[in-house]
Amino acid sequence: MAVTLVARHSPVTGTDTTSPTHVSPERSDLSAGEPVPREGGSKPRILLIVNPMATTVSHRLKNLVVYALRGRYHVDAVETESRNHATALTRDAATDSYDLVVAFGGDGTVNEAANGLVSSSTPLAILPGGSTNVVCRLLGIPTDVVDATERLISFGDRLPTRSIDLGRVGDRYFVSSSGVGLDAEITRWVDERPPLKARGGPLTYAYGALTALRREYAGKPARIAVEAGGQHVEGVTAVIQNSDPFTYFGSRPVRVCEDVAIDSGTLSMTVFRRASQRD
């Protein structure tokens, strides 16, 4: 599956309380589109963006993926070197006549790649390389990179596409969810410890949550305030989603905002008024 991103303005107005409420998102559609074979029957050009620091990515695995894809496509492979590098690479790819961009990494890599393709007609495909691969699961892409690569090759130059929504915070888009408060603190703590994340997987996030609670949140007053729908809500964290579930603990879905779909045209927010180790 591949997707293309075209920005369309629709202001975000907010949410209300601890139960999710649908709101109108700053919407970007991942619109239908297919890479077209070049004249003379040459192979479609794809840019493979690889995050070498992603949990399950290795140099050997990257080489195997490139070798397999070159049987069907003309492949240029580039490794990311810093934060937001994938955004710069995909932005350039959108103006450089690539037929397809493939992001090989975790959800952070996918998010960066998507930000560079907003408002372009260049499709984006995903190969899973992270610890959780939430976006892959949401789109029905296999979470095993071998299976996902075989699936991509089988499509050839007739890739099926799907239209989905993106949320926007400031000048950045998010593919599945965005959080402030405790949620953001947990993500920051985990991202600063790549080796621990690689070894511990979902347990690393659980440990990060307990650490943040003990150090920053236990017994302390609410830290954020949300104004939406004529209501004022205070809490310790807010999660905005355009899809369900929020994440996975192993194979188990973790649901925060239910009844929201990645292609429904709405966003949903949940505000947690408090948080404790017992919760």
TrEMBL record:
| Residue ranges occupied by any DAGKc domain in the UniProt entry | 41-173
Q: Which PROSITE patterns match?
A: DAGK
- Where does the secretion signal sit in this chain? none
The family database entries (SUPFAM superfamilies) matched by this protein are listed as: NAD kinase/diacylglycerol kinase-like (SSF111331)
What Pfam families does the record point to? DAGK_cat
Instruction: List, in alphabetical order, the Gene Ontology terms for molecular function in this entry.
Output: kinase activity
Composition-biased stretches (Polar residues) = 12-22
Region Disordered, residue ranges: 1-43
Supply the InterPro entries for this chain.
ATP-NAD_kinase_N, Diacylglycerol_kinase_cat_dom, Lipid_Phosphate_FormReg, NAD/diacylglycerol_kinase_sf
Name recorded for this polypeptide: DAGKc domain-containing protein
**Organism in which the protein naturally occurs:** marine sediment metagenome
